[in-house]
Design brief:
Number of helices: 10
Distance between the termini: 21 Å
Shape: globular
Bound molecules: NADP nicotinamide-adenine-dinucleotide phosphate
Oligomer: single chain
Strand order of the largest sheet: 2-1-3-5-6-4
Largest sheet: 6 strands, mixed
Radius of gyration: 19 Å
């Protein structure tokens, strides 16, 4: 529906913002629920972010998502960040509270777990070790999510080992760091493998990972969703592993913000996936 003058308005900060799928995602839910609202791209360069984000209440906006490269700056800019956002070290969802203050939250952990449980319904945290490849913002959220879900052992593998150690420190004794060169060995007995690097994305090199040691019952998931079927997922599917693509993580992480701004708990459906994929990604 076309917004009226009373519409609730939210958006997504990014630089650039034109590749974000979030306007289509939230636009679908607004239509689905007949809500008088709007969700818009907010392209803001890094040097202006701290100033612009403080204008959300003055502009009468309900809040915003935050994507690259602003997630850490958002943590520093809000009046209060919830515990999960502070542990992860990044804010991707901002809620303007009734008193005009900014609450920072992080929905990537919830998005990751929601997508995994939907795509691999037989996976259980206690099934065994999880291997996380990568140590950036996505890996931090995923490590915290899997730790909180009760995974007994987290194996963090990253090209830059010192960054893997930082992620391991987030989750303490249940984690261990493996060298990037040893990543094939990290597959031994794993129940879950997560690609949280940018490898495999259209235009980037594929993730070079030997899956021979991975048990056939393990689940494999990717944070990359362009393409949906990454070379990692194609290789894992070919050997019979349950595979979960990265689009669902994006869709599930959007639920937290939508509920806070527009007052309705939205669902992730096949119709939503088809609609979001039907766009040109811009
Ligand atoms: N599906 C979703 O909802 C969702 C949400 C967030 C992010 N993501 C995706 O997750 C991925 C990571 O995002 P991020 O925000 O965590 O990015 P980031 O902070 O920039 O981290 C990038 C990671 O990729 C690794 N990497 C990059 N090039 C590499 C190479 N040539 N060889 C080995 N490792 C390499 C980096 O290793 P070093 O530390 O050694 O540089 C680092 O661990 C991106 O593809 C992003 O689109 C998806």
């Amino acid at each position: 529906m076309t917004p009226t003058g009373r519409a609730i308005v939210a958006g997504v900060f990014g630089w650039p913002a034109k590749h974000s799928l979030s306007p289509r995602l939230h636009g679908y839910w607004l239509d689905e629920h007949g809500i008088d609202g709007a969700y818009i791209p907010l392209p803001v360069p890094p040097e202006s972010f701290a100033q612009v984000v403080r204008l959300l209440p003055a502009m009468g906006m309900a809040g915003a998502n935050v994507t690259l490269p602003h997630k850490e700056a958002a943590l520093a800019s809000v009046d209060e960040a919830d515990e999960l956002a502070r542990r992860i070290g990044a804010v991707n969802t901002i809620v303007v509270r009734a008193d005009g203050s900014l609450l920072g939250r992080n929905s990537d952990a919830q998005g990751f777990i929601g997508n995994l449980r939907e795509g691999a319904p037989d996976w259980r945290p206690e099934d065994g070790p999880a291997v996380i490849l990568g140590a950036g913002g996505a890996a931090r959220a995923i490590a915290v999510a899997l730790f909180d879900a009760g995974v007994p052992e987290l194996r963090i593998v990253n090209r830059t080992t010192s960054r893997a150690e930082d992620v391991a420190a987030l989750v303490g004794g249940r984690s261990q760091v493996s060298l990037w060169l040893d990543r094939a060995r990290a597959m031994d007995g794993a129940a879950l493998v997560v690609n949280a690097t940018s490898l495999g994305m259209t235009g980037a090199a594929p993730l070079d990972l030997d899956l021979d040691r991975l048990p056939p019952g393990a689940a494999v998931t990717d944070t990359v969703y362009t393409p949906l079927e990454t070379p990692l997922l194609a290789a894992a599917r070919a050997r019979g592993n349950v595979c979960v693509d990265g689009l669902g993580m994006l869709l599930h992480q959007g639920r937290m913000g939508f509920a806070a701004w527009f007052g309705v708990e939205p669902a992730v459906s096949q119709g939503l996936r088809d609609f979001v994929l039907g766009g040109d990604g811009a």
